[in-house]
Amino acid sequence: MMPSYTSLFVAAMAAATTSAFTTNFPSTQISSSSSPSSTLFMSSTPELTKQCFLDGKKIRGPITPLGNFVLVRTKDTLDATDGGILLPDQAKDRPTEGEVVAAGPGKLHPHTGVRITNPVTTGDSVLFGKFDGHDMNYNEEPVTMIRDDDVLLYYKGVRMTLANVIPCRDYVLVAIEKQKTETSSGIVVAETVMRDYNPCEGKVAKVGEGRMTSTGEFSTPPCKEGDFVKFRDYAGNEVKIEGKEYSLVRMVDILTSIPAP
C-alpha cells in the first residue's frame, strides 16, 4: 500500500525539526534525568552571567581601566620583628601597598602620539602614595584606582625584599643611614630632637629604568647603584624593606651624585 502525501509531509517536517534543534544547540546534552527547562538555561560562558558591583550598584561586567589607570587591591603592610613575627605596619605616613587587579595599556603622548606603556601588569604588587588615587568598593572589596605615575615601585611575590623590588621608571631607591646623635665636638643630641628630621642623602640601592621620553625611549639615569646622592628636602618617600629604612626619590629631585669608589 502506497503511503499518503499527508504522512510523507509529516515525516519530512519531523526530520527538519530534529535537524534544526541539533544545529542550534550543538553542545547541549539532554538526558532523561534533566528537565528541558534546566538544560536550556545551562550556559557554556559563565562570565556572561557573572554579576559585578561598583559602590553597591550593579554594572554590566568587570572593570577595564583605560589609558594609564591601574586598579589596585589594597593589602596590609607587614613588618617583621627580630623574632620573625609579622606585624602590621603602624606608620600612618608610609606609602600604601597593593596588588594590581587590572591595568590599562598606557597613555598616548599628547604631542607625538607615542604610547607610553604601563609599567605594571595584573598580579604585580605595587607601592603608591597614601593619598593617591580614588577609593572605590568593587564586588564588596575595597580597591583604589591610581595612575601609573603614582606607582613608586613594584615587585612580584608575597613580600618586598631588596632583591625583588624595582623602582618605577624615574624613581631611585636610596638607603638612608641612621642619623648620628652625637656632634663632632662630643655633644649628645636627644633622639626626640632628631625624630622629625627627614634625611636627604644616602647610598643608591637600586635605580629605575629612567623616564620615558616623547619618542618612547628611556632617559639616562643620573646615578647608578652604589653612588652617594643628595636630594631635595622632603622629596623622598620613606619605605621600610626587610627592616631597613629607604627613600624613593625621583631623578629630577637628586641634587648631586658622588660616584662609588
Description of the structure:
The chain has helices spanning 5-24, 36-40, 191-194, and strands at residues 52-54, 57-59, 69-75, 78-80, 86-88, 96-103, 106-108, 115-117, 125-128, 134-137, 142-147, 151-155, 166-167, 171-175, 201-207, 228-231, 237-241, 244-250, 254-258. It has 261 residues and is mostly beta strands. The chain has a 7-stranded antiparallel sheet with strand order 10-11-3-6-9-12-13, with no helix packed on it. It has a 6-stranded antiparallel sheet with strand order 17-18-14-15-16-19, with no helix packed on it. Strands 1-2 form a two-stranded antiparallel sheet. The longest helix has 20 residues, at 5-24. It is globular and about 70 Å long.
Helicity level, as a percent range? 10-25%
What average pLDDT do the residues reach? Answer: 77
Total number of helices: 3
- Terminal residue distance: 110 Å
Largest sheet geometry: 7 strands, antiparallel
**Count of β-strands:** 19
The Rg value, from CA coordinates, equals 30 Å
The side-by-side strand order for the widest beta sheet comes to 10-11-3-6-9-12-13
Indicate the structural class: mainly beta
Along the chain, the helix and strand elements come as HHEEEEEEEEEEEEEEHEEEEE
Would you kindly provide a brief summary of this structure?
The protein contains three helices and 19 strands. It has 261 residues and is mainly beta.
Q: Which key phrases capture this entry?
A:
261 residues; single chain; 3 helices; mainly beta; globular
List the helices and strands and how they pair.
Elements: H1 5-24, H2 36-40, E1 52-54, E2 57-59, E3 69-75, E4 78-80, E5 86-88, E6 96-103, E7 106-108, E8 115-117, E9 125-128, E10 134-137, E11 142-147, E12 151-155, E13 166-167, E14 171-175, H3 191-194, E15 201-207, E16 228-231, E17 237-241, E18 244-250, E19 254-258
Antiparallel strand pairs: 1-2, 3-6, 3-11, 4-5, 6-9, 7-8, 9-12, 10-11, 12-13, 14-15, 14-18, 15-16, 16-19, 17-18
